[in-house]
Amino acid sequence: MQGALTGLLLPPLLLVMAVLAAGLLAWRGWRAMGGLAALCALLLLLLSTPFAAGSLAVAVARLAPAEASIQPAAIIVLGGEMVRGEAGAEVGPLTLERLRAGAALHRRTGLPLLVSGGPVGRDAPPVAELMAASLREDFGVPVRWVEPRARDTRDNAVLAAAMLRAEGIEAAHLVTHAWHMPRSLGAFARAGLPVEAAPVRQEVQPRGTASDWLPRPDHLARSWFMLREAAGLLVYRIRDGN
User: Fold this and answer.
1) Beta carbons within 10 angstroms of residue 140's beta carbon
2) 15 is in which domain, residue-wise?
3) In this structure, are 185 and 227 located in the same domain?
4) Which of the residue ranges 12-16, 58-62, 110-114, 205-209 would you say has the lowest mean pLDDT?
């Protein structure tokens, strides 16, 4: 249900429906609707550019709250997506980036790893189990805790915090993408577990060169991720009162 609402209420589908509705009204004689259709089409094109996607990513990442100085005793890696190939279910590209960063941080600090992520669809395995297998087989890194039930960022925080507190651990490094970090830090703060951000792929503001304005479908997908994060932050703050 949440995924369906996200798809309906955010671009590109929202803008596509607006273009179709405004275009139909313009065809029926409401000439002012032609301008609205053109504006929505222009916004859709803009969101497909590297400049828009990159600018949104930088803006979302900057929403991260200030962090207090802590002494982490573990590393939490949050799951992202999964994919299916001939060999079955595997971690997706975003999740793999987080695993690479988590493995590197483990090697630098020697701290134990916790991976968190539940199933992302019906009959899908928990992402955390795929993450643990990838860390073991692809990076040669052991995982001490596997949290396989979280279905969203708030679950990640609540369930991971409970697992670490049961082991007497009161603070941790948190590994996720820079654009996902603001929502993640807020969720862990509400769960009562202090974490230190270890963001993956820090974003930089696009320079506005000619290539930054060439639309591509993958940048439209990236813009969608950023808008979803901003909407998630807003929902969390309304729901949790902060």
Assistant:
1) 9
2) 2-62+214-240
3) no
4) 12-16
